[in-house]
Amino acid sequence: MRYTPVACALALALAAVSSSVTGQRPDHQVDARSVALVERAAAARTAGDLNGATDLLETALAVDPRNRSAFIALAGIAQAQQLPGKAIRMYREALLLEPTDLAALKGQGEALVQKGAIAKARENLARIKGLCSAATCAEATTLAAVIDKGPPPTALSAKAVTPAPTVAVEAVE
């Protein structure tokens, strides 16, 4: 008799949890409309329309936020636009969906090098080497080469190239 309230509460909790789990789609099932938008974005990027490709990829993510390839493509565009911080964030989103995605790990490592975070890029390289089953892994080789090359030279800011103002001193007579 004293276990009845506990049993009822557990049964209710089990029913609530199981009904919410059955309503979710598996990770590997990405909405076909989202996949089509990613393909259109790839065509736009090939044509050189980075802004149009970004818009299509963001729409693809609005349709299905579990589309890992859309995150990876957005990160690639961000790298092409010299926005490594945005690229790192997009790769992180892809890695939250699939932590063992070699392409996302490699891309994030390259973006980290682009930003100057070599130590973090080496961590990604170590993760890739741990995940690769083959003796030679293309992702590991590529990322190691990028790390060895190092970050790109820093671009000069407007402040760095603007000459200091000169004040003319007039002679007082």
Q: Write down the secondary-structure element order.
A: HHHHHHHHH
Could you say what the CATH architecture is? Alpha Horseshoe
Average of pLDDT:
81
Tally of DSSP β-strands? 0
In CATH terms, what is the fold-level topology?
Serine Threonine Protein Phosphatase 5, Tetratricopeptide repeat
* CATH class type: Mainly Alpha
* Domain module tally: 1
Strand content: under 5%
**Superfamily at the CATH H level?**
Tetratricopeptide repeat domain
Please state the structural category: mainly alpha
The biggest sheet amounts to: none
The number of helical segments is 9
What does the model show?
- By secondary structure, this protein is mainly alpha-helical.
- It has one domain (27-161): Serine Threonine Protein Phosphatase 5, Tetratricopeptide repeat.
- It has helices spanning 4-22, 32-46, 50-63, 68-80, 84-97, 102-115, 118-131, 138-149, 158-161.
- It is extended, with a radius of gyration of 25 Å.
- The relative contact order is 0.07.
- Residues 18-27 have low confidence and may be disordered.
- Residues 1-23 form the signal peptide.
